[in-house]
Amino acid sequence: MKIRGFIQLTAIILFFGWCHPVLAIPQGKPLTLSEAEALALNTSPELQRFQALRHGLQQQAIADRQLSDPQLVAGMANVPTNSFSLTQDDMTMEQIGLQQAFPRGHSLLMKSKQDQALALSEKRKAQEKALTLIRTVRETWLDLYYWTQALRSLRANQKLYKNLLKVSISLYETRKANQSDVLQVQLELSKLDDQAIQIQQQISILRAQLERWIGLEQASRQLALTLPHWPSPPSIKLLQTRLRQHPILCIDAAMIAAAHSEVAFAKEQYKPGWVLNAGYAKRQGHFVDGMSRSDFVGAQVTIDLPLFTTNRQDRQVNAGYDRLLATKLDQQTHYRDLMQVLTTQYAIWNRLSQREEVYKKQLTPVARQSAKASLIAYQNATTELTQVLRVYSSELTIQLELIQLQVERAKSRAILLYLEGVVA
After folding, report:
1. Which one of 76, 92, 138, 181 has the lowest number of neighbouring Cβ atoms within 10 Å?
2. What is the spatial distance between Cα 252 and Cα 325, in angstroms, rounded to a whole number?
3. How wide is the angle at C-alpha 418 spanned by C-alphas 129 and 260, nearest 5°?
4. 362 shares a domain with 297
5. pTM for this model (two decimals)
6. Last residue of some domain: 261, 280, 305?
7. Which superkingdom, per the lineage (predicted)?
């Protein structure tokens, strides 16, 4: 099991309860988990990125609803090539006009709705990122808590092992024990030099991971020595109901809305687009009778004729429907994944709670009594040192397993809070 392997590594490192001094930690208020969460949320560039993307899409949605800029049309018409005179021919004229294009159907509205849906998806992504960030910080902080508590257990047991060394020396001097007993304890104490470095390495790695989210100065602070007090999770049925509002599924819902708008936009392409052109033409010169030549005004409409739709409009609509289906299937997949995690973690949390009670009420008291009894027996020369070491090792392992059970239970609760959508 994962917990068992984690405990075995720690038990090897802490077997006889002595270590080098740990790295200096800045003095001051201990870093609590809730404080680490707040620091991570307030300094996260990822969350700011999603806010920027959302704001950009909101601006784009407004822009996409606007008509394209009108065009100014100006020029000369019917200029004779033999003289390039502007007054020689009656039909020579200076033209100026405005041209405005109008897109097909409600294309602008559909495009704007798609941008709005994408903006909503970025908002949901920010919410999901906040949940993921908090979950990561919680898991890292809890792992760091475990190793910190492991060092505290080491220090608490240090006197016991030193006392055992004194007892073995005393028995050897009275010829009630062999020199090998003394050497065995000394050998185990010597091995802890390298094992202590391994613990410090684990702490350094976890502090580096925590630094990624809250900064070096904050990650270097002393850790608070109490686990967070989260309320017990609600019933599994209530959690399953709340799961449908998880940001991941809300992201999918926003993407589905965007896909619907994409399909609607594609359908609008079956409708004709058109261009309106209005102009004024001024003629130069005069008639033979001296009257000025009259000016002209004109207007025209250019209309698209979507007659051949098989390989363009039809394909675009089909492509939109395919992407819509894929997005809906993504939502179903994500829901199943989240449901599987919820069911698993709820069962884990319940079983770890039961195991924690067994350790507190049965294993820990028995292990403590057994350690005391074995030491007395060794002092009375009625048992061997190896038996004492075995019992001491078992007691330390049980202590560490209890801490690890508490940490794993808290991590399981953190995952359930993530699934509930609870940031703090």
Report:
1. 76
2. 12
3. 55
4. no
5. 0.83
6. 305
7. Bacteria
- For residues 226 and 115, membership in a common domain is answered with yes
Final residue in a domain of this structure, among 250, 280, 305: 305
Specify the 3-state DSSP secondary structure of 190.
helix
- In this structure, what is the dihedral angle of CA atoms 417, 419, 421, 424, given to the nearest 10 degrees? 20
Q: 22 and 151: one domain?
A: yes
User: pLDDT 10s digit of each residue in the chain, 424 long?
Assistant: 444 544 444 444 443 333 333 333 344 799 999 999 999 999 999 999 999 999 999 999 999 999 999 999 999 888 888 888 887 777 888 999 999 999 999 999 999 999 999 999 999 999 999 999 999 999 999 999 999 898 888 777 777 777 777 888 888 888 777 888 878 777 777 766 677 778 788 999 999 999 999 999 999 999 998 999 999 999 999 999 999 999 999 999 999 999 999 999 999 999 999 999 999 999 877 766 667 788 899 999 999 999 998 999 999 999 999 999 999 999 999 999 999 999 999 999 999 999 999 999 999 999 999 988 988 888 888 888 888 888 888 888 899 899 999 999 999 999 999 999 887 5
Domain range enclosing 324: 2-67+103-271+306-420
Number of domains, the chain: 2
User: Would you state the structure tokens that stand for residue 266, as one six-digit string?
Assistant: 């594609």
Q: For residue 266, give the CATH number of its domain.
A: 1.20.1600.10
